[in-house]
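Quick note —
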Amino acid sequence: MDTLKMGIVGAGGIARGRHIPAFQKMADQVELTGVFDQNIEAATAAADEFNISCVADSYEKLLKRVDAVTICTPNIFHAEMAKQALEAGVHVFCEKPMATSVEDCQVMVDAANDSSKILMIGYHYRFHREAEAAKKLMESGEIGDPLVIRVQALRRRKVPGWGVFTNRSLQGGGCLMDYGCHLLDLALWLTNFEEVDQVLGQTYEQISRDPDQVNEWGVFDPEQIDVEDHATAYIKFKSGATMLFETSWAANILEDKETLSISGTKGGLDVYPFTINSSKHGMLTTSEAQWLPGEADTGLAQAQNFVRSCLGLEQPRTTPDQALRTSKIISDIYESSTV
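Predicted structure written out below.
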């Protein structure tokens, strides 16, 4: 197979803003064969916009025409659609998070294991050039063993006022499921998914419940929102390492902030911006990278990895087992918050 026939499932913003444009840049390896959406008008609009020849009127018909699908539906549908595709012999790229429950994630893992096809979850932060540099440094041993990992994925008053982001029945959660999962997954990947010993978490939704809303990202009904807008967690690993984690859509802070730092036994690093903190030769030094290799467009880099994995040219950077472990911690944070 020289060219992968790709189907798009869900014709919303993430498909039209990230995935379809990325695949179009890979015309030598990908043919955008068809699009399916329960909203036929949305599917038709996407097909017209991106010159996709087929608008499928059922998911089953799409699966018969393609080698792979990119699933961009609300989270609640991820497991069922991925399982159906894998059982049909079709490779699957699925947007994050993997699913809304650990049980559904396991269904996806089992389906992938039973098939000979690729299942890759869309944790595109792993494709940031800073993340790739941090991974190389961690694998070199220069930082030593991780001791304390600090993660912040914070936005100031930016609850998504569009789509179904604030609908728990469709999404499974709020800022943790939608945004914080990216940096949580990245931190776990950089530290080789150490085995978890304990998770203590807390979620909040008080800010979004305030009827006097000030919100940069559109309008939502504070009486209808039923997901968290802020979450914190303390995660202890069996190695003794710990993670301090915080994420929010609506924090009352000075400005948006993305932080991922790792303090190790030999040194430390910060991912954003990428810096290395060392103590050598009787000195304390901090080094900044002047240039980082890699693709600046993380959506394109992710698409390339998935397509090449389907074609047998690479290994997927995100494996089903890893995505399941990320989802298990997310589930543990929610469960801890309700105790």
